[in-house]
């Protein structure tokens, strides 16, 4: 599981600037999906072999009594509770502010490991910027410049050392799960627990806590038609007698972690509700993570034609960028549509793990170019020569040639469509990377 790092501090200390730097590697990917609404507050990054999730908490006024500030404080507290590490940012140019002391007092009580960071320290002497912050009682302040990047890699190396210290090794028994890993995600009340019970309720399942995380996540192993699966909980499930019940409130962090750790995500929507911003954010994260996806539109039972049409139009309009995924109209309470949903899960997994042999990829590329040439940009016309597979889950196609910087987004989408058709890649994102020789 990817550790979660929360960025905390009062407004204007540089949290968003640091957030952007820590998640920058993802920006290019996000830009590849037009129409994607993105939640600026959750992102992903990696230092070396160590990935992490990062949460930017907005401004934190711990003494707020009402309104938007109170809501922000509430959200910050939830983010801190769900994090493995807190990076507490103060402003080296403004110096120590009274709110900093209040935030420090709160953070000390949470017992989370805290890294105290003095931002905007570029061009300043360490002793001059750091000294006044010792009195926060959070150890040695680290000086950084989020804007210029000074000190950020050192900070992350140390933070990740601590975050990963509690994690089991990759080959630890506890992390070896069976079969396809599935995360069922969606807003509260869409029917996640009901679907879990429809899938596994009758079976003797093995449920266990995944160690090494502060938010103990449960993993449920089950079988269906002889195939093994492991379900990663997002709803805060606990077994009560024969059924699973959700006992915790919705957690964005838990949802993001489950998506990162899954092979296939089932995005569950409620046919009786409009698709919300939150649904779109979750969907955006699934695509960013490159996860195979199946959409389940739940509560399809007893709906009249008019409502059904509306639900279909809403889906087509708001989640256009999920066109690669199959949708199923299901009823978790009645058990209808679930067989087909699970067949799509299997197909999406197979597509995500596809092997794309170089000769066949290159042939598909050349045929695509013969059918439609990329446009010239100025005097140069991009030349696409051959392609090979650069990764699985999601599949990555690396296209080699010359002047590939001039390839337009629409041509890239055209190529994606051709590759999808050739290899019948349904249910998985597909990434295309270009490598120019000159
Ligand atoms: P947030 O409200 O905590 O998210 O703060 P922002 O990231 O929006 O930054 C607030 C202001 O501080 C912006 O004008 C930034 O450009 C500036 N800022 C952020 N990081 C640095 C830094 O490392 N050095 C300097 N000099 N300014 C910075
Ligand atoms: P969760 O919060 O996403 O885990 O949602 P639950 O599984 O707890 O379901 C929320 C409510 O929706 C419960 O009252 C369920 O009985 C109801 N529900 C779930 N699936 C269906 C369905 O397929 N049809 C109908 N009509 N109601 C459903």
TrEMBL record:
SUPFAM superfamilies: P-loop containing nucleoside triphosphate hydrolases (SSF52540)
GO molecular-function terms, A-Z: GTP binding; ribosome binding
UniProt keyword annotations, A-Z: GTP-binding, Nucleotide-binding, Repeat, Ribosome biogenesis
GO biological process terms on file: ribosome biogenesis
Cross-referenced PROSITE patterns: G_ENGA
Residue ranges of domain EngA-type G in the record: 3-167, 180-353
Tagged with keyword Isomerase: no
Cross-referenced SMART domains: AAA (SM00382)
Residues annotated for GTP 1 binding in this entry: 9-16, 56-60, 119-122
Annotated binding of GTP 2, by residue: 186-193, 233-237, 298-301
Coiled-coil boundaries: none
Its biological purpose: GTPase that plays an essential role in the late steps of ribosome biogenesis.
Record-stated family: Belongs to the TRAFAC class TrmE-Era-EngA-EngB-Septin-like GTPase superfamily. EngA (Der) GTPase family.
NCBIfam families noted in UniProt: GTPase_EngA (TIGR03594), small_GTP (TIGR00231)
Complex and partners: Associates with the 50S ribosomal subunit.
This protein's name: GTPase Der
